[in-house]
Amino acid sequence: MIPVTKPFLPSQEEYQRHLNAIWNRQWLTNNGPLVNELETRLKEYLDTSNVLFLANGTLALQIAVKVFDLKGEVITTPFSYVATTSAIVWENCRPVFVDIDAETFNIDPSKIEEAITEDTTAILATHVFGNACDIDAIKTIADKHNLHVIYDAAHCFGTKYKNKTVFEYGDVSTASFHATKLFHTIEGGAVFCQDNELADKMGLLRNFGHTSPVTFGSVGINAKNSEFHAAMGLCCLDHIDDILVTRKTQWQRYESLLRAEKRIQLLKITPGCEFNYAYFPIVLQDEAQLNKVTAALNLQYVQPRRYFYPSLNNLSYVKQQPCPVSESISERVICLPLYHSLRKEDQDMITRVIIKNL
Ligand SMILES: Cc1ncc(COP(=O)(O)O)c(C=O)c1O
């Protein structure tokens, strides 16, 4: 079976070393030494101002919305994983969908201003597939209308924009460290921000609002993560350069094998973005072709995935708003298998099957 993704796993010995230390200390969670070490090493590796390690990327989004006490309307992308929208709705805000760019698949900044009303409080955009949004254009609009900017950077470990990690942009950026991601902690996520006070506030939100064992500075939730998850993160960080280089090589192999095929649309990388090669989406001509290609791949025990379907503006629990570009891409896009141990021969076979079945 060739699934769309497989988690990277360090050797058991590497993980065991951390387990031995956990057993010795008997400190399993609540801001333990491995959580602290992971945050420090992430900060160094990514060169970011503040990072808080969290239980998952969905809570990271919820905390980002909560910390600004957002109300009213939040402008967002319809082309993302469902967590981007559900975090907005969960925090009692209304998602307002702005259609995407047909080539980068990210929110189209030229359509944002017409969606702004007096109820708009923020823009929450996803750097989808690890490809940065047009960050400068979004910042210009946000500054002009005094809006907060939150980036769902769930896919973005290793992505840079204008020579800086993409996590340094926006008022807050969120990441997912789920097992399917390039860098993972089994389950996990993070919020990043430049402002120290904001980081302190998010720290309170992460830990029930505790300012001491008996005092509470704000409402809070349990978004902490454990020593066991931090241990996996530390092991994966030891291999991250190799993971990123391998991913780039694999991505470029798919690209070289499919570039000449005009019936398939490939992702356009945003100008200024140093891509992390996290996903390899292909857009087919229509849904019938997508089904045909998928069935042919399944026959060879290959499982591509429909990332992202449906277009989020069509979710049952949001006010439906037309987003024709996102709807069209959503109906036609699949991501090809991409993971550290994927073999060249498998990539060659996958592309052969695709081309034969167009
Ligand atoms: C774009 C995006 N945002 C948010 C999430 C949620 O992250 P998590 O699964 O860590 O809660 C995901 C998960 O895959 C995602 O793809």
TrEMBL record:
<protein>
    <submittedName>
        <fullName>dTDP-4-amino-4,6-dideoxygalactose transaminase</fullName>
    </submittedName>
</protein>
<keyword id="KW-0663">Pyridoxal phosphate</keyword>
<dbReference type="GO" id="GO:0030170">
    <property type="term" value="F:pyridoxal phosphate binding"/>
</dbReference>
<dbReference type="InterPro" id="IPR015421">
    <property type="entry name" value="PyrdxlP-dep_Trfase_major"/>
</dbReference>
<dbReference type="InterPro" id="IPR000653">
    <property type="entry name" value="DegT/StrS_aminotransferase"/>
</dbReference>
<feature type="active site" description="Proton acceptor">
    <location>
        <position position="181"/>
    </location>
</feature>
<comment type="similarity">
    <text>Belongs to the DegT/DnrJ/EryC1 family.</text>
</comment>
<feature type="modified residue" description="N6-(pyridoxal phosphate)lysine">
    <location>
        <position position="181"/>
    </location>
</feature>
<dbReference type="GO" id="GO:0008483">
    <property type="term" value="F:transaminase activity"/>
</dbReference>
<dbReference type="GO" id="GO:0000271">
    <property type="term" value="P:polysaccharide biosynthetic process"/>
</dbReference>
<dbReference type="Pfam" id="PF01041">
    <property type="entry name" value="DegT_DnrJ_EryC1"/>
</dbReference>
<dbReference type="InterPro" id="IPR015424">
    <property type="entry name" value="PyrdxlP-dep_Trfase"/>
</dbReference>
